[in-house]
Specification:
The chain has about 130 residues and is α/β, with parallel strands linked by helices. It is about 45% helix and about 20% strand. It has helices at about 15-25, 40-50, 65-75, 90-100, 115-130; strands spanning about 5-10, 30-35, 50-55, 80-85, 105.
Length: about 130
Amino acid sequence: MRSLQKVLHVEDDPSIRTIARLAIEAVGRLTLLSCENGKMALAQAEDFSPDLILLDVMLPDMDGPAILKALQMQMDLSEIPVIFMTAKVQKTELDRFLSLGAFAVIPKPFDPMTLAQTLQDHFERFHSGC
């Protein structure tokens, strides 16, 4: 089975990007490409070749669902779990995010000490077919 090594993260808030960077790189020992907007993510995603994509939902210009749709047209995501990160965690919102092709949703605020393990758990669940 593939192992989780590279994470593409799209988040416009610099403080959340910094916390996520520490959580994913320092705690999780994973390689991270952190993008502040969808345009940057779309320009770099294919070359980076992520094992997992972590998208904020609420972003200026292009929101997480729009980025996901553009990524789906740009590259094959069949082997790459996409996870939304959002404070919007009502059941109807969660159902909508999953219906758009996201594998999971991580609620904000997140725990920086467990974020990398949560991503690892979702990655393993995605590849086990559960």
